[in-house]
Amino acid sequence: MGQKFKHEDDTESDNENYDLTKEEEDIAYLLRYNSGYKEVDINKDDVAYTRGDKMVECLLNSTKYGVSSKQKLFKNRDDAINYCQQFMDKKLYVRVEKKVFRKKDTSDLAEGTKAPKKLKFFISSYKSFEPTSEVYYLWNYNPILFYKKVVGVIIMLGAVGLCLMPLWPAWLKVGCYYFGVGVSCFLGFFIGLYFFQQLILFSVLFVSLGRLRFIFLPNLIAECSFLESFVPLCTYEWRMKKVKKND
């Protein structure tokens, strides 16, 4: 489940048992994935973080537990803040300080291009929950998403079906054969497209002596939808050499 963040003075073990009730699990799942979280790479691990004000808004606007719901578990901001504090005490997330670092030397970037920023988080010594936009919280609690559970069940049923292949009717075997051929052609097309992309990239870099970076279908292997993989069609970036001035 990834690394677990905690305060230096915490002596509890790094186990994943948060001792939650069914209702708390439901609310924690809601808070984890519906509070506008973002992800940051920490030690080669994608870690989610959320702003304090977004977490409170998530609970208050919940259709099941919020102000307008039938249960009205969270009648006001104080109720939501107290519940967030309970989750923080159970180490579902830890309060952190966020700092942004930008690259100082921008001579190798194209004109008008902003320097990429790098986020760093430091464990805060404060253990109280504050519902403000300046305070961030790193998540230790990462429950499995519902769609991943569905995919797991489908894979398991598919494995059982393959074991029963000798009992399949002839029409099903023929259909699976053509389906497999179609999937293989589809994957082969994307693999070929990727090699073509890399060929163009390195060819242009070689001809331009490393000054022009031209990428065909830059989102081809990015984490996006199928249609977004083909948008934009291409991107390019000129890298100017740094000119040293003589004193």
From TrEMBL:
Record keyword Endoplasmic reticulum present: yes
Residues that span the membrane, as ranges: 150-171, 177-207
Is Membrane tagged as a keyword?
Answer: yes
Recorded topology in the membrane = Multi-pass membrane protein
What's a BP term from Gene Ontology annotated to this protein? Answer: post-translational protein targeting to membrane, translocation
* Keywords of the record: Endoplasmic reticulum, Membrane, Protein transport, Translocation, Transmembrane, Transmembrane helix, Transport
> InterPro entries recorded for this chain?
Sec62
Q: Which GO terms describe its cellular component?
A: endoplasmic reticulum membrane
Q: What name does UniProt use for this protein? A: Translocation protein SEC62
Q: Which PANTHER family match?
A: TRANSLOCATION PROTEIN SEC62 (PTHR12443:SF9)
Annotated compartments: Endoplasmic reticulum membrane
Q: Which family does it belong to?
A: Belongs to the SEC62 family.
One family name in Pfam for this protein: Sec62
